[in-house]
Amino acid sequence: MDWDNARIFLAIQRAGTLRGAAEQLQIDQATVGRRLNAMEKSLGARLFLRTPAGYVATPAGDLAIAAVEKMEQAADQLQRQMQGIDERLCGVVRVAATDTMAKHVLMPAMQLLAVEHPAIRVVLTTSTQVSNLTRREADLAVRSLRPTSPDLISRHLKRLAVGLYASRAYVERHGVPQPGSALAGHDVVIYQRAIYTSQIETICGESTANARVAMEVSSGLMLMEAVAAGLGIGELPTYMADTMPQLVRLWPDRSEPYDMWLVLHDDLNRTARVRAVADAIVAAYDKLEAA
Which of 158, 130, 123 is closest to 283 using CA atoms? Predict the structure, then answer.
């Protein structure tokens, strides 16, 4: 199996459908189907079962996965190493971050980067999912959790904090909750439990047991928008929420710290354009007030 076919095989295995694989690879769905049929014919084995739920690897397909993933790892490593000796301040750099971080920190950083290095093109992905740097889904990532992989370099950016906030309109209607009441008589906005499975049923150390959950959201930006719209009390980063005049901080002495990390693969640490983007992000975080 050559590398082109290996990429198609992995895309089908990960997406579970021909359409999903085609979208990942940005090729025609019919081409994916033809290439899969050709692979199975040349190998003399069925690689996937076609089920109503999608394509499921057969025992032969399971055997192929390990070998093909090794091919992928070798190809990715070669590409990273070639990039690692690239001293040109031009080309594409893929950056992954949450939407709130992108809006409030990365965008100002990218504005300055565009002036200093206009030949660098940033591909920004905002998602709650953690991008895989080893597979080059991103070259740089801004994360609130420090990764443990020995192949990744982590740089501490800043210790920040979250606090409790509500809109001025909400406070006029409902007042300020009493500490220790588990937010009785109040509405809260929280992250979706299906996405944040490790979420503790507290915000800024206060239980939400007596509160009404008015909305569950999937991103920090939507959490901030919901709180600003007066839908309920929410836990927001202080450096963002303090700049919004329509918000009121509740219990200013109550906060929860968290750390932000800049992460990149060790092979890309010497790539000029990656370092330029990393330096711009670091400079942007240096301007933030620490917790």
Answer: 158
Q: At a CB cut-off of 8 Å and minimum separation 6, what does 228 contact?
A: 167, 244, 246, 247
Distance CA 194, CA 81 (A): 38
Angle, helices 3-15 vs 59-84, to 10°: value is 120
Q: Round to whole Å and give the CA distance between 8 and 35.
A: 8
Q: How many Cβ atoms sit within 10 Å of the Cβ of residue 176?
A: 14
Q: How far apart are CA 222 and CA 220, in angstroms?
A: 5
Output the pLDDT for position 169: 97
Tell me the C-alpha distance between 238 and 108, whole Å. Answer: 18
CB 261 within 8 A of CB 156: yes
* pLDDT averaged per 10 residues, the chain (length 291): 76 88 88 88 86 87 80 65 66 92 94 94 82 70 87 91 97 96 96 64 92 93 96 96 96 94 83 91 91 70
The whole-angstrom separation of Cα 150 and Cα 139 is: 16
d(CA 205, CA 162): 11
Is-above-0.90 flag for pTM?
no
**What is residue 289's predicted lDDT score, i.e. its pLDDT?**
83
Tokens of 277: 């983007």
